[in-house]
Amino acid sequence: MMTDTTAMFWPMIAHAFLVFILYYLLSMRRGAAVSSGSVDIRQFKENLSEPAESLLVHNNLKNQFELPMLFHAGVLAIFICNADNIITIALAWIFVISRYAHSYVHITSNRLLLRRPLFMLGFMATVLMWGWLAIWLATS
């Protein structure tokens, strides 16, 4: 049964808030690096190298514009084609929750043994969403 709601958009909004949080955290960490004197503010003019204090946040923020772009495009396509259902909504939430968890691990311990499975969970959720869309389009 397809949904007649905008429920698919809430995971997108939740992911956008993760990006906003990361931008804020990046700004705070860069500001702290400048305040401590470990970085000259002019370094950010061309930003050829990220200071150690903010490097993990900077790298994680870049990650939010890689696989998540396929997620957002998939959500929009699923919604536009009226292919959304409880499963696609659940997959979208799995993706977003995995991104929050991946970000937390990335900007704290940065343990690859934790990061990779979290990334793969979100990756698989996105693949399944696109797979469902392909099936829906092929059979509609």
Automatic annotation (TrEMBL):
Subcellular localization(s) per the UniProt record: Membrane
Membrane-traversing stretches: 7-26, 69-97, 118-138
Keywords: Membrane, Transmembrane, Transmembrane helix
One CC-aspect GO term: membrane
Transmembrane among keywords: yes
UniProt cross-references to InterPro entries, sorted A to Z: MAPEG-like_dom_sf, Membr-assoc_MAPEG
Domain of life: Bacteria
Entry annotated with the keyword Membrane: yes
Matches recorded under Gene3D superfamilies: Membrane associated eicosanoid/glutathione metabolism-like domain (1.20.120.550)
Protein name: MAPEG family protein
Source species: Rhizobium wenxiniae
